[in-house]
Amino acid sequence: MESPSAEPPHPAKDVTQHVGYLLKRAQAALRAAMDKVLREHGLTVPQYATLELLALHPGMSNSDLARATFVTRQSGNVVLRGLQEAGLITRPTTADHGRARPAHLTEEGHTRLAAVQAAVYAIEERMVEAIPPQRMAALLTDLDRIAAALEK
């Protein structure tokens, strides 16, 4: 006996037209494009995101960086160790208080970030150019609402 199929949440011919599928397709395309340009600079997406965040917010902890870059604390620690070994960040060997060891970009970290930003920003520009300007604000609001609805 066949089980009844659930109704889709919105009209769509098939799963490839569902919001989740299209979001994942866009995310996969973005990740592939970023992987390609970052590889040329010896960085991964989490490493690049960490450098960007530390440039904006020096002294972030591993936990804060992991949350902001969408990786686990364990993976975040691996990212930080790799960046530290590459001379792109510094962290104290011990924590002043608690367990947090704030990270900071080195001069080489700032240089590497500046070298790769143009390539990454060009990818974002390609995405933005695909959206009519009058719809950009609504798209950003909608993406934020989607994330908030799923985080409940």
From TrEMBL:
SUPFAM superfamilies: Winged helix' DNA-binding domain (SSF46785). It comes from the Bacteria. InterPro entries: HTH_MarR-typ (IPR000835), MarR/SlyA-like (IPR039422), WH-like_DNA-bd_sf (IPR036388), WH_DNA-bd_sf (IPR036390). Residues 16-148 form the HTH marR-type domain. Pfam families: MarR_2. PROSITE patterns: HTH_MARR_2. SMART domains: HTH_MARR. This is MarR family transcriptional regulator. It comes from Kitasatospora herbaricolor.
